[in-house]
Design brief:
three-stranded antiparallel sheet; 112 residues; alpha+beta; 45% helix
Length: 112
C-alpha cells in the first residue's frame, strides 16, 4: 500500500489544471464515489505507474524469486498468489525501497 495516493498528492493533482490533471481528477472522484464508504474516503493505488517504473528503475524495488499463479476457477477467478522459492521461475518486485520513488512517479504524472 506504499503506492497509495495521499490526500496531499490528490490536492496537487486537482490544482495542476493540466489536461491530464483534469482527466485524472475526474476519474479519481468517480472511483472514490464508487469505492468510499460513509466516514471513510478511499484513495487509489499507483500500481500501473509503479509497474512502468519497475522497468526503468529496477533499483527502486526489493525483488523476490518464486512462483506466481493466477486462478481461473469461478470462486477465485483472477486471484493471484505468490509462493517464495529461491529457484522459482518468476521474479517479482516485492516492495519499494524508498517512498521517494513514489514521489518521483507522482511528479512525472503531474507534469503530463
Amino acid at each position: 500500500m506504499a503506492c497509495t495516493i495521499t490526500p496531499g498528492q490528490l490536492a496537487r493533482l486537482v490544482a495542476s489544471h493540466t489536461p491530464t490533471g483534469r482527466l485524472l481528477s475526474r476519474a479519481i472522484r468517480l472511483w472514490q464515489k464508487a469505492k468510499s464508504k460513509p466516514g471513510r474516503i478511499e484513495y487509489p493505488h499507483l500500481y500501473d505507474p509503479m509497474a512502468v517504473a519497475m522497468v526503468s528503475h529496477p533499483e527502486w524495488f526489493e525483488w523476490r524469486r518464486g512462483r506466481v499463479a493466477v486462478s481461473f476457477a469461478p470462486r477465485t477467478f483472477a486471484r493471484t498468489t505468490f509462493t517464495p522459492d529461491a529457484r522459482g521461475p518468476h521474479r517479482v518486485a516485492w516492495k519499494i525501497k524508498s517512498l521517494h520513488s513514489v514521489e518521483v512517479v507522482w511528479a512525472r504524472i503531474l507534469s503530463l
